[in-house]
Amino acid sequence: MADLSLVDLNTPFDPGLVGKIHDAQSTIAPLGSAIVAFSGGVDSAVVLRLALESLPGHVLAATGLSMSYAAEEIAEAKHVAAVIGAPHQMVETMEVTDPRYADNTHQRCFFCKTELYSKLKETAAQLGYAAILDGTNADDGDDYRPGIRAADALGVISPLAQAGITKSEIRQMARAWGIPIWNKPAAACLSSRFQYGDPITVEKLRQVGKAESGLRALGLRGFRVRHHDDIARLEIPAEMLAWVVEHRDEVISAVKAAGYTYVTVDLEGFRSGSMNEVLHARVKSAGLRRPGPG
User: Fold this and answer.
1) Which DSSP string do the residues of 118-168 spell out, in sequence order?
2) CA dist., res. 278 & res. 291, Å (int)
3) Residues 7-24 pLDDT 10s
4) pLDDT at 273
5) Residue 28 above 80 pLDDT?
């Protein structure tokens, strides 16, 4: 297994980032023990590595097992936890059975994260862990994230955000520590592929998941399949658009195999949180402040 030891004299970070890392560790160390809400993404992977260093022998990585997460994401979370050297447990969540979640209002993420963090708190109480940590970072206030409000309500601690650590700094840390997903594109649950107001169902989640799995099998990364009834709108990184056009037959086949009738490509390309664009526009037109995570 890779040596993922933390800051030493040879670590190529500037003093400002080293100070932030120490601040994050100072938040974690007094807790005594912790469960890390581990999605398998780079943010929570860095928190997990920090927690293992700060609380050796008293850390558990826990990943929500849900229909709203792609099977590949679950498999990668297991792999990354093993590489980092953390004990890892799957915790089943049932947000898809909650009508408030299934209604898919702009508060969907609040109900999803409330379910996840509630289950993690139950697990912590059963196993004797003192706190729950998540991977929220200093940049996450730039988009609409009601899940942060759920974390705050349930006492989840965000050491990266508290220390002012940004996404680019997280990638620096992960790369220097040998975490294999240091450059992994941002990921989100499959429910983020639907317009607000379009009800979430298990069947729709499976359809989107199948389409994205088919595209990943072709070699695509860092994309989204946005669901619009029988239309799949593909958000592709700009540098991959020419490849998609060149391989259009394979792309169309992969998406239609999931049950879509039409396949479109969004010329604006991939952008995280694009389903919030309509919400932000409505708020702006009403002369209100754009909604924030609180």
Assistant:
1) HHHHHHHHHHT--EEE----TTGGGS--HHHHHHHHTT-B-HHHHTT--HH
2) 12
3) 453 477 999 999 999 999
4) 58
5) yes
Shared domain for 166 and 215, answered yes or no, is no
Domain match, 206 and 156 both = no
pLDDT at res. 70: 87
Clarify whether residues 120 and 156 are in a common domain.
yes
d(CA 244, CA 251): 7
CATH number, domain of 264, equals: 3.30.70
Indicate if the pLDDT at residue 127 is higher than 80. yes
Whether 101 and 200 have beta carbons less than 8 Å apart is answered as yes
Helix (H) or strand (E) holding 231: strand 231-235
Identify the band that residue 142 occupies on the pLDDT scale cut at 50, 70 and 90: low
Q: Identify the domain containing residue 204 by its residue range.
A: 190-271
| Same domain, residue pair 195 and 166 | no
The answer to whether residues 92 and 214 belong to one domain is no
Residues sharing a CB contact under 8 Å with residue 191, sequence separation 6 or more, in sequence order: 68, 101, 104, 108, 112, 200, 205
CA-derived radius of gyration, the chain: 19
pTM beyond 0.70, yes or no: yes
